[in-house]
């Protein structure tokens, strides 16, 4: 009797753990498609034209003029973020329902550039089962509809996208 009870409890625990993981990591159908950047705003909905970036010891400080990226989410769980035709991030994605966030697993191209190597050396990158390094990037979703995607950024900024047909 104790053995059957132990088997039942173990089975329920495994099923519960698997169910919990599957409900948190999913592909959200509304996200699949191409998303065009429209504007960057602050918490008061004022347009933000420039952002200053400074990463000590890695890259030079500089100004960003928000222009994108162009986002593409595919049904197979892959994505691209196109900043320019020459600068395109690729990787895997899923939607974290519990935290209302899109999780991007940004894979680094080999040979690793200076910035990727820095992240690897500092322990910010993870190694997958194939030995490839990736960075886990989380974008909090402020709002999502069939045609609009608003992502939260540092400083309570909002990056606004519309679905491209």
- Structural category is alpha+beta
Secondary structure: helix percent:
10-25%
CATH class: Mainly Beta
Named at the architecture level, the CATH assignment is Beta Barrel
Unreliable segments of 5+ consecutive residues? 2-23
Number of strands: 12
Mean pLDDT: 82
The helix tally amounts to 2
Main sheet properties: 8 strands, antiparallel, barrel
Distance between the termini: 61 Å
Outline: globular
The run of helices and strands is HEEEEEEEEHEEEE
Number of domains: 1
CATH topology: Lipocalin
Strand portion: 35-45%
Rg, rounded, reads 20 Å
Widest sheet, order of strands: 2-5-6-7-8-10-11-12
Overview of the structural elements:
- By secondary structure, the chain is of the alpha+beta class.
- The chain has one domain: Lipocalin (Beta Barrel).
- It contains two helices and twelve strands; from the N terminus they run H-E-E-E-E-E-E-E-E-H-E-E-E-E.
- The strands form two sheets. An eight-stranded antiparallel β-barrel has the order 2-5-6-7-8-10-11-12. Strands 3-4 form a two-stranded antiparallel ribbon.
- Strand 9 and strand 10 form a beta hairpin.
- The longest helix is centred in the first third of the chain and has 23 residues.
- 10% of the residues are buried.
- The N terminus is likely disordered.
